[in-house]
Amino acid sequence: MKKAIGIFDSGVGGLTVYKAIRAAFPEEDLIYFGDTARVPYGPKSHNTIIEYSIQNSRFLLQQGIKTLIVACNTSSAVAIPALQQLTDIPIIGVIDPGAEQAARNTINKRIGIIGTEGTVRSGAYTTAIQKLIPDALVFSEACPLFVSLVEEGWQDHAIAYSIAEEYLSPLKKLDIDTLVLGCTHYPLLRKVIQDVMGSSVTLVDSADAITAYLACLIPADSDGVSGKDSFFVSDNEDKFARISQQILTDQFGTLSRVRLFESWFQD
Ligand code: DGL
């Protein structure tokens, strides 16, 4: 029986990763879980992010997935070791693919990271980049309101420019040549971020890099049958459906709300 790839995020942001995987693997079944009841994860404590990530992963593991994609930088930054205790299937986070792409791109070894408070606080990108380029200078900035802009569907709104100017002005003074979009919500603000940073800065989106990782890990399902798409959220399915249709445009599978069952909290 065909086993699916499981993907989770705190909300709609991970759909940027989902979309890249769907385009690269048209025959794979994909199951996406967005924890819309508890988004945002960025301002939450380390332990809470780990706890939520474990619960989300348990739900996906109960669906019999073959690979788990942590399409949330905040979870990827702190929870991967805890998730590896749950299962033997491959688990891929978004930090390493993004760090590798940034390291490949930079020429002046000055790299910016934008992400949630949790991701920035973890220092995970700095560690991953400096493993690849020990003398790289990495500058990080938390941009918490970007997540709300995306969850509201306001990525083209004038207010997005004002907020981006405010958050990104310190990075603009640091002569970076590469900026990692270290939150899966941020690629949805790509145009605003690029306009504010200017064309000399290359934006790195881990969604692009993660598909290469996946290709090395899983044998491709090539039965000629288009993969199924199943979406689950923990709340507000109408809002999720509205925003996800803007992001995915042409593709949409089944969408269901799941409750935070007791079983999620048990071994
Ligand atoms: N999209 C998530 C990330 O990549 C988190 C946004 C949030 O829940 O704060 O970090």
Overall description:
There is one protein chain. With 267 residues, this protein is α/β, with parallel strands linked by helices. It has helices spanning 15-24, 46-62, 73-84, 95-105, 117-122, 124-132, 145-151, 158-172, 190-197, 206-217, 237-248, and strands at residues 5-9, 30-34, 67-70, 91-93, 110-115, 137-142, 178-182, 202-204, 229-233, 254-257. It has a six-stranded parallel sheet with strand order 4-3-1-2-9-10, with helices on both faces. Strands 6-5-7-8 form a four-stranded parallel sheet, sandwiched between helices. Strand 1, helix 1 (15-24) and strand 2 form a beta-alpha-beta unit. The longest helix is centred in the first third of the chain and has 17 residues, at 46-62. It is globular and about 55 Å long. D-glutamic acid binds at residues 9-11, 13, 39-42, 72-74, 116, 119, 147, 183-185.
Q: In what order do the strands lie side by side in the largest sheet?
A: 4-3-1-2-9-10
Which cofactor or ligand species appear?
Answer: D-glutamic acid
CATH-assigned fold name of the largest domain:
Rossmann fold
* Largest sheet geometry: 6 strands, parallel
The level-1 CATH class of the largest domain = Alpha Beta
How many runs of DSSP E, i.e. beta strands? 10
- The secondary-structure class comes to alpha/beta
- Architecture of the largest domain, CATH level 2? 3-Layer(aba) Sandwich
* N-to-C SSE string, H for helix and E for strand: EHEHEHEHEHHEHHEHEHEHE
Beta-strand content: 15-25%
Distance between the termini: 26 Å
**Net shape:** globular
How much is the average pLDDT? 91
Number of helical segments? 11
Percent helix, as a range, is 40-55%
How big is the Rg?
18 Å
Low-confidence stretches: none
Count up the domains.
Answer: 2
